[in-house]
Amino acid sequence: MGKFITIEGIEGAGKSTQLAFIQKYLADQNQSLTVTREPGGTELGEQIRELLLTPRSQGMAVDTELLLMFAARAEHIEQVIKPALERGEWVLSDRFTDATFAYQGGGRGISQQRITEIADWTLKGLQPDLTLLFDLPVEVGLQRVLIRNEGVDRFEQEKVDFFQRIKECYLDRAQQDPKRMKIIDANQSIVDIQAQLTTILDSLLAH
Ligand code: TMP
């Protein structure tokens, strides 16, 4: 079985840059790797992603949002993640279930217990071997999103306190599961971030 790595953080945490670094680092170590994302990662999942992110879905009920996240994830697990792990490949996913606890739980206020029930049913025991949480002040992240100037999606239209709750939920989860979830200060220099990533990845490669 390959290893399953997920990447998390609020908007503007620099996930894409670090994802490219991790991808190259693992390729240099001769690991075959599937890189994917949530919501999305399959044809059906990408269509669900479009429904979830478009500002046209403004006012979507929070339970609809939660169930669509898990619908996309069920497809993703069956079609992409499990088959790749079974082939012995590593899987690197830009977001996974921690995002649901943080965004639909912390952000939207759905109970952690309800999310746990659906997660247990959908994941059937699948857990990332490693989750990298890129943490930074909410204001810094949102400023980066604005500078990027790519137009904002339905989540990025939310206010600072929404992202503050998400950030806190992510940090709580990392504190509860420090072996799996590593917090990386995304506000430090890229060189420092990548040195920290290298140490963490080397330790995973050694196990
Ligand atoms: P991203 O490509 O910037 O990560 O966009 C995905 C958005 O979807 C981001 O705002 C976080 C949100 N999201 C959730 O709210 N719940 C989830 O379970 C996942 C995977 C993503």
Task: Characterise this structure.
This protein has 207 residues and is α/β, with parallel strands linked by helices. It has one domain: Rossmann fold (3-Layer(aba) Sandwich). It has a five-stranded parallel beta sheet with strand order 2-3-1-4-5, sandwiched between helices. It has helices at residues 15-28, 43-53, 62-86, 97-107, 112-123, 138-148, 160-176, 190-206; strands at 4-9, 33-37, 90-94, 130-135, 181-185. It is built from eight helices and five strands; from the N terminus they run βαβααβααβααβα. The model has no long low-confidence stretch (mean pLDDT 96). The structure holds thymidine-5'-phosphate (TMP). The site of thymidine-5'-phosphate (TMP) has 11 residues, from helix 4.
Topology:
Blueprint lengths: L3 E6 L5 H14 L4 E5 L5 H11 L8 H25 L3 E5 L2 H11 L4 H12 L6 E6 L2 H11 L11 H17 L4 E5 L4 H17 L1
Parallel strand pairs: 1-3, 1-4, 2-3, 4-5
The site of thymidine-5'-phosphate has 11 residues, from α4.
